[in-house]
Amino acid sequence: MAPINYDQEGVVFDIQRYSIHDGPGVRTIVFLKGCPLRCRWCSNPESQDPKPELFYKDSSCIHCGKCLPVCPVAALSQDNPGFVDRDKCIRCGACAEACPTDALTRSGKVMTVNQVLQEVRKDATHYRRSGGGITLSGGEPLMQSDFARELLKACHEQGWNTAMETTGFTTPEIIADVMPHVDHALLDIKAIDPAVHMANTGVDNRIILENAIRTAMTSKSVVVRVPVVPGVNDTEQAISDIGNFAKMLPGVETVHLLGYHSYGENKYGLLNRAYPMGDTPDLPKDALPPLKKVIESLGLNCMIGG
Ligand SMILES: C[S@@+](CC[C@H](N)C(=O)[O-])C[C@H]1O[C@@H](n2cnc3c(N)ncnc32)[C@H](O)[C@@H]1O
Ligand code: SF4
Ligand code: SF4
Ligand code: SF4
């Protein structure tokens, strides 16, 4: 195996410590920026653009004007200081550094594998006791495949368990390159019907379904995850289609059902974007147990949440 490149850089938008979700034991979740999908319900809209970007919180702006002169490309307006012309913005972050109230903040920073390791190491004693480790999430972690691979290799070198939340929308070569370094793959399947998938995520699901088979054949443990979204896949038929697909993946025994929530809505506002789900209510709690039964009737284990 090639030596680990600890200087490999990636764009990380969050590191969450002490998570008890997204893999076994206590986990540190490292969120990588960039995603080729545009799921209408995505709870992390700041994850989608591969580069760092600005959040602007109007209610925190005191109109001091300190952000205006530091912008090298005049992407901020005199009349509405925090409003960002996102086509002009070169993501330098100077305005966020100048802002005294954090009305402007930058999401995403370039980190090396070594820098992420130093952060993750703070939880390492909990990994040993709980069988936990690191989970790569996003965004789509496979969009930064070189960084993901080197980070996963470095974690294995430390003896830490690795997991990845992915939708697998990438090339077969990247699956073959990265997935052998993942102990637990949490594989999202959002819809089997190609038209439904395209209309709600912006991409064809053929690659995803083919790569799900490749992932199942490459990874040590794979769980299929389904965000259950009203009007998209919250019917017994849609869930049964996903269950039947999961059932034929080698080694897959478990499906997680995640009910749609609108927790990410406010972040769309901070990015000056409209929320694609409008006022769609969160999936009611009683909608999931019957769908769980559908999965179980296919001979699979099913967990609500995950
Ligand atoms: C933020 S995604 C990151 C991983 C990858 N991009 C994906 O979608 O699988 C992590 C998990 O959150 C789920 N998710 C995203 N938005 C959601 C929402 N509004 N409600 C419920 N689950 C959501 C995804 O389906 C996925 O299982
Ligand atoms: S991030 Fe840089 S380019 Fe973008 S608005 Fe702020 S100062 Fe201007
Ligand atoms: S520096 Fe911050 S508080 Fe001052 S005008 Fe700019 S966004 Fe508003
Ligand atoms: S694949 Fe995941 S990160 Fe990408 S848009 Fe969909 S939910 Fe968001």
TrEMBL record:
PROSITE patterns with a match to the protein in the record: 4FE4S_FER_1, 4FE4S_FER_2, RADICAL_ACTIVATING, RADICAL_SAM
UniProt KW Nucleotide-binding keyword: no
Keywords, comma-separated and alphabetical: 4Fe-4S, Iron, Iron-sulfur, Metal-binding, Oxidoreductase, S-adenosyl-L-methionine
4Fe-4S ferredoxin-type domain: residues covered: 50-79, 80-109
Domain of life of the source: Bacteria
SUPFAM superfamilies, per the entry: 4Fe-4S ferredoxins, Radical SAM enzymes
InterPro entries: 4Fe4S_Fe-S-bd, 4Fe4S_Fe_S_CS, BssD/PflA/YjjW, Organic_radical-activating, Organic_radical_activase, Radical_activat_CS, rSAM, rSAM_sf
GO molecular-function term, one example from the UniProt record: oxidoreductase activity
Domain Radical SAM core: 21-301
Cofactor section: [4Fe-4S] cluster
Family statement drawn from the similarity comment of this UniProt entry: Belongs to the organic radical-activating enzymes family.
The protein's name: Glycerol dehydratase, cobalamin-independent, small subunit
Native organism: Cohaesibacter marisflavi
